[in-house]
Description:
The chain is of the alpha/beta class. It has helices at residues 10-43, 54-67, 82-85, 90-93, 109-119, 134-138, 143-160, 181-198, 231-250, and strands spanning 75-80, 98-103, 127-131, 165-169, 202-204.
Amino acid sequence: MSEKIESQSIERLIDFVNDLQQDYVGYVKNARQTVAQIEEKSSNFTDMNSPPEIWHNEILRLKTRVAKLKTQDNLIVFYGSSSIRLWVNIKKDLHPKNVLNFGFGGSSFAWCIHYFKEIFKDVYPQKIVLYGGENDLGEGKSPQEVLADCKTLVSLILHKYPEIDLALISIKPSVEREALLPNIIETNLLLSKYIIGEQNGQFINVFSRMITSDNRPKPELYLSDGLHLNRAGYQIWAGVIKEALGAYQNI
């Protein structure tokens, strides 16, 4: 501070702190924009033989989490895109469930398929909760194509874990992708029929809690990018998902 403030007066200190707060807001905004750009590039990256370099460390980070697990008893793994990855309070929000966050930003069902064997090599969960389809639709895929990719991922999961409990979180209605709402609604319908009707799994509907009475996404649930959830958004997710997991366990 001595390098930034000429005198040690209270007035100068207050001015310094106020200026620093404004700079910090700018830093955070730029960081969010950079992350959004990186994730957009990643989600639009379709060469499955040459994944984005940014995911190298992402996958290593996920594999490290497995090594740090205290126990895999009754383990619930959440697998999917940035809505899972950025849920930093997932353990606290879903306590006392034993949960593992396997989200990586910008991913689609296709990329979840690509990395499944590597990421789940040493994991033995009781239940897997999937979140996908949002980036897929953003890439221009149809609801039917999203369903087909989801089926491929589920087949991989069931091959490795024949007795696994499965759940799928509905695609959220984000402000940034409001134009895709008709496709999101159709995809959620297809996914729900598949996961419930064909796989006897759970479809966890967060969509209905995140939409207004006039069918608009609730902006107060999102960060400034209109795409990623803020704390209020995750609180809704936590309530709906925890209730769903508890209800399923009781059944």
